[in-house]
Amino acid sequence: MGEMQIMSLAPHCGAEVTGIDVRAISDDDMVLLQRTLAHSGVVLLRDQQLTPEDHIAFARRWGDIDVNNYFPANGGYPEIAEVRKAETQFVNIGGGWHTDHSYDAVPAMGSILVARELPPVGGDTLFASMGAAYDALSDGLKATLGGLRAVHSADHIYGHDGIYAKTDQAADLKGHDISANAVHPAVIHHPVTGRKLLYVNPAFTLHFEGWTREESAPLLQYLYSVAMREEFHCRLQWAPGSVAVWDNRSTWHFAVNDYHGHKRLMHRITISGVALS
User: CB pairs under 8 A, 24+ apart, for 208-215?
Assistant: First the structure.
């Protein structure tokens, strides 16, 4: 396709990469793509023509594959989870700020999302930089957070009595009996760049270790308000052939639910990560 080109999408996160076909990406370009992701948090690739087999092969260039416990699998390809919303559904998956798999003891590195069916307009995905959010905090708050660990769980989201069980997504999701809980530092170092990152999120973080939920709530809400500042965000507009790779350690994301009456189907493969510190 030519020479790989990298264009920043926003000041604090996001890069669009053109000029490559990921089905035939060279080792050198793969290294550059991995470096771009480590520094930008999310990479958008346009005009890719990936079969499910191509999607899996590309994912394996990044690392081992985590099979999602909750999303429906694509028929015939257990590695691929379907993120879908039908024309008749009102609730979408990921319609709030979160980072995937923070409830796992070793959270996923990131995900590779391939657009399969898109609404005529809408259905964008927002990303937020957790490096920029951390940098915006005062020295005093950074020092306080340096000594804190946070408890994460998926049970209140995906369990039998969880949030999705009460919505029109309930019949599509699985894993209601799986309990997933983990404790991580509130501030982590990016495993590649070493950059300090805020590592709490509104979906899966319950409270600080040793604190009650009531005590934790004001500080967590303040941290979330910082990370939700628009200047720390970028916006991905999907098109046929779009593929996004994002880093779960350094970004949050938010799937905008503004396309009622239309179907949206995405294929997601999640890449295994490393223990956080």
Answer: 208/148, 208/149, 208/150, 208/151, 209/148, 209/149, 209/150, 209/151, 209/183
Alpha-carbon distance of 125 to 14, in angstroms, equals 11
The answer to whether residue 268 is catalytic is yes
**Per-residue pLDDT at 204:** 94
Residue 173: pLDDT band by 50, 70, 90 thresholds?
A: very low
Q: Considering the chain, what is the average pLDDT of its residues?
A: 91
DSSP H or E run through 78: strand 77-85
Choosing from 12, 66, 84, 100, which is the catalytic residue?
100
Six-digit token string for 94: 């990921």
- For the purposes of burial, counting CB atoms within 10 Å of the CB of 121, is it exposed (0-12), middle (13-18) or buried (19 or more)? exposed
Measured distance CA(73)–CA(76) in Å, rounded = 8
Q: SS3 for 54?
A: helix
Token pair of 74 as six digits: 């694509």
Q: Which residues contact 215 (CB under 8 A, 6 or more apart)?
A: 207, 208
Is 98 annotated as catalytic? yes
253 is catalytic: yes
Residue pair 171/186 in contact by the 8 Å Cβ criterion:
no
Would you say the pTM of this structure is higher than 0.70? yes
In the set 84, 116, 184, 268, the catalytic residue is 268
Dihedral sign for Cα 20, 25, 28, 34, please.
positive
Exactly one of 116, 152, 207, 253 is catalytic; name it.
253
Of the candidates 55, 84, 98, 184, the residue annotated as catalytic is: 98
